[in-house]
Amino acid sequence: MKKTTLLTLLLAVFPSLFFAQSSGRHGNLTYTFGYNEVPDNCNLPLIGIVNVAHGNQKSFHIGMVNTTEGNMGGAQIGFINTVGDGMDGIQIAFVNTTGDNQLGFQCGFINTIGDAFTGIQTGFINTVGDNASGVQVGFINTLGDNAYGVQVGFINAIGDRMRGSQIGFINAVGDKVQGAQIGFVNGVERLDGFQVGFINGTRVLNGLQVGFVNSVDRVEHGVPIGFLSFVHHGGYQAFEFSFNEMYPYNASYKIGIDKFYTFPMVSYNPNRIDPWAIGFGAGSVIPMNEEVFFNPELMSQTVVSSNFQEITSLGLQFGHAFTENVDFLAGPSLVWSRTTTTDPMFSLHNWDLGGSNRLNVGFRLALRYRFQN
Description:
single chain; 373 residues; 19-stranded mixed beta sheet
């Protein structure tokens, strides 16, 4: 009885009495629970530790190591999955590799496709050698050629063009983006869409950049919006010395494009208890003719003091270009000051809003030097 039970168990769990037959191509057919091998177009399901399929297969393979030499249509589920040619189906493993095209789904720690890919890759490292249409989700996503879809990861890199979205800490595209880059650092040769990040860079901008630092070689149709936006050709850079209703000495550096520029500034008033203030603002140059322009600016300043004191102002200035580089500006301003008791040096009128808030109407004078780029 015991001998019969042991023999039955051996046959069920590890049938060393495997069957083999000539396939006419790629050797024999071997089928055990330890090692399975099938010839070309022998579409048996393979369940074992090591599964090897010669030629093309349409089946599913479940094991520690799954290998298909040709095209695979179906599913591979294991620790290491390898397809020598194309894949049409699902790969789920620690390491997934497809030599040619893949249509379907890869889920693993490392996913690699040598040629084109259509579907979903999800893992720690995802790599596609050629084009991809679909989604890559991982810590590192790389794509050799064009992408149509979405990359979500810590590092996303595309060798050529992207039509879709990149969402990550570092996003890089070698040629052109038609869509969105959202990350801490974004870089692309040509942007037809928008970038949102801490640092954004593109050679040609046709869209929108929103970041702390933006770098653009040339703007065709678009606007960079950031703390500092460097436009190397056709941008706006200027140094300004000005007088306003709160501070007689102001210095600011304006950078961006004519449509939208930003500027940090520092101010000094020797008649105040706390004479220094630092600020940041944004403005736009709107041409009226060849020499005259309208220049609205919104600015916020913080007084360097142990107490919080903030000054927010809107300036409506008109400028006149004396030379190619020098502008003179003047115009009224509306100023809202908080937690400050010092009266402005010059004010047309003021309204006490109660408490530590006050609204003032004043004016500004400025001399600006524009750099050519």
